[in-house]
Amino acid sequence: MAMHERVGSGLRGFDRVIDDMRLGDNVVWQVDSIDDYRNVAVPFAENALSEGRKLIYFRFGMHEPILSDSLFTRKYEIDSKKGFESFASEIRKLIEKEGLKALYVFDCLTDLLEFWHSDLMIANFFKVTCPFLYDLETIAYFAIMRNSHTYSTIAGIRETTQLLLDLYNVGGRRYIHPLKVWQRYSPTMFFPHLVEGDEASSITSSMEVAELFSSLDRGKDKLDHWQIMLGKAGDTLTKDKMAQEDIKRELMSTIIGGGQRMFDLCDRYFTLADILAVASREIGTGFIGGKSVGMLVARKILEKDAGEKFSRYLEPHDSFYLGSDIFYTYIVQNGWWSLRTRQKTKDGYFSLAPELKEKLLKGKFPSIIKEQFYQMLEYYGQSPIIVRSSSLQEDNFGNAFAGKYDSVFCANQGTPEERYEALEQAIRTVYASTMSDDALNYRLNRGLSESDEQMAILVQRVSGDYHGPNFYPHLAGVGNSTNLYVWDKDIDTTAGMLRMVFGLGTRAVERSVGDYAHVVCLDNPMRTPHIGYGDEKKFSQHYADVISIVENNLLTRNVDELVSGEIGTDRSLFASIDFRSEEYLKERGYSLKYRPIIMDFKKLLSETEFPSLMRNMLELISRVYEYPVDIEFTVNFTKDGRFKVNLVQCRPLQTRGLGTPVEMPKPGDCENCLIRSKGNFMGGNVRLPLDYTILVKTKEYLKLDEQGKYEVARTIGKLNESLKGYGVMLVGPGRWGTTTPTLGVPVHFTEIANMAVICEVSSAESGLMPELSFGSHFFQDLVETGIFYAAIFDGKSDVTYNPLLIMMKKNRLNNLIAGADHLSDVIHVAMTEGMEIFADIVSQTLVCR
Length: 849
Fold this sequence. Notes:
With 849 residues, the chain is an alpha+beta fold. It has four domains: 6-214, P-loop containing nucleotide triphosphate hydrolases (Rossmann fold), CATH 3.40.50.300; 225-461, ATP-grasp fold, A domain (Dna Ligase, domain 1); 476-652, 2-Layer Sandwich (D-amino Acid Aminotransferase, Chain A, domain 1), CATH 3.30.470; 667-848. It is built from 30 helices and 37 strands. Strands 20-30-34-33-32-31-36-37-29-35 form a ten-stranded mixed β-sheet. A nine-stranded mixed β-sheet has the order 5-4-6-7-3-8-9-10-11. Strand 27 (629-637) and strand 28 (643-652) form a beta hairpin. Helix 5 (119-135) runs parallel beside helix 6 (151-160), helix 5 runs parallel beside helix 14 (324-333) and helix 8 (225-236) runs antiparallel to helix 9. The protein is elongated and about 105 Å long. The chain starts with 5 loop residues before the first strand and ends with a strand. 47% of the residues are buried. Residues 288-659 form the Pyruvate phosphate dikinase AMP/ATP-binding domain. It comes from Youngiibacter multivorans. This is Pyruvate phosphate dikinase AMP/ATP-binding domain-containing protein.
């Protein structure tokens, strides 16, 4: 584009010095006072208006206005307290709205430190804003206060801007010293110039120049504003409590962020010393994110409110936090901010996400950040670590984001260079997961698609130890302070529940193929879900996830073999000998390398303090939260049976509650029921009308090849959209949402998110079986979305299931989804107006009729 049109500054002598300003110039003034900046901005604005140009004033500073009301065409007041992304995005939209060849005056950028507390983010703002202004052929005035920013911030601004100018006021005389004038040159351009009225004269005499500069305080490299603030906070530790509380809250607003409810919890439990301890382990600046905050505040509650009761059982943590500003800096400095801005629009939300995701996996980090990564890795040595997402909205009241973003285990073996590259790639992977389909759909469905989702990262030392070549904790799992899924009328829902596994907790938070976590009702830990005689082995844990020192990776091992080896403690805590299988194998002449076991955790639950400890921990945290909570934990045992619990995560458990009791149908009214069952449902007391019922037929589904099964899943997703707003019950074989089509229908959760009820039906002939996976990420999605869930164990004496009642009705599939008639033998969609589903917690009765 032609960029030669010249625009006056209002100071004719200065225009001659720099050979005029040109459309496209960004002009940065380093000043000692706002008055000095005003003295150059006002003539610029007056000249622009006199030439009939459009002059826009961006107002966001704490200082007095730069321009009076008569000196601009329009003024926009921007709230910098909302943070970098909101601020930069709003300004970009307004610049785009004003279009080509507008002229701009911005308030002093240094004032952004008041709320951002980061020099780096000011440089980032400049880097994303100035190229956009350049492309629109504008001229924009900016100011920064001299000696208030780091050299690296100034360097970033110098690299991006077209004009960088020092403005001095010495003894009442004004001097302009050009430091950078892009694509212009004269023999005297870069000398200081004395400005008198409209004129400017070069100071070329060595004596005069030396005299001028010797009177100026050039300053040394400044500490980052954040470091200065931390230093002042540290000094406050010796002062009175009120002074400490004030600066503590100021630091918290920058580190904690999040909603008011979580902020208030942190304010109640953290001291200034606690916040400074967190800050000392933060890399970069910005928020540490919801996952980090939840973990820290839960630990502080146990420490502060229970004293010695829990402290001797709690394993300490030594986590690091990668501030959310690193995420922004990574995007800005790799040149992707424009792409990110376009991706956040309605048109680009899904279409541009794959491109941004691919870029996020391949970017480079600034050297100053890389050095801090190295130091963190040196601290951990060769201990395995886990790099976990900790976005601003994650694990907060209202949005759990359970399983939506990645966590990456680093075995942390090999040379320092290899270990560092693995760490960097793990961080990139977490960043890229912000563009995953699950995350995008979750944000869209919860009205968060346009809000800031700042991705911080929590780096934790993996809890556990090496047992032979494998690293793992003895126990890991999730716990809920309220048991929302009960199968026995005697269960105390307020006592909470656990879902736990031997080894790493990955198998506790996901629905594992062919495997089952152990579920514990904490009011009676030996109570188990209804399973038939001989099913204990089938519905127990068969595999464990470990970190292999040999393979330098996360691996899955046979749990029988693992527990039969050296595990560093009493294996009978976790496993009982499977005498039935042992006898069966011996009778058939098999030679056994190790005795078969059942992972029933009987000794752990009946002879140790573990279940009562977990119940009390959950009860205390939930009471303080004034809300049900969901935790993740690990447990490690010594040879003499002592144990330590590591609380690695805590978040509010999103739930609608049990609901008020409903009047159930009388037994005589249930002769033609679609479903009648005892227990195995989740969602509280309900009476829900059903406008439609979608049935996936078991036999017909199993006849399909893998491609056909996936087509069924995608068609369910289309029905989910088509019937949005209706009361719909979805019934199908095995597990909804499995990644293995032989175990159920492989839908994504977003493809069933509009359903009122989902039912998983067992099929003894095919081996398809629901998994009562409360505590998993799937469970979290159901609870958050308010979907009622039931597992139907067809064939059991206390279960009635009559799918013919649905199949007798007209199949509406082809009316709802064009071109789906070839699946009408597999998917049956019936209008079921007048049908209702009833559930009662006390009697543990479920009826659909």
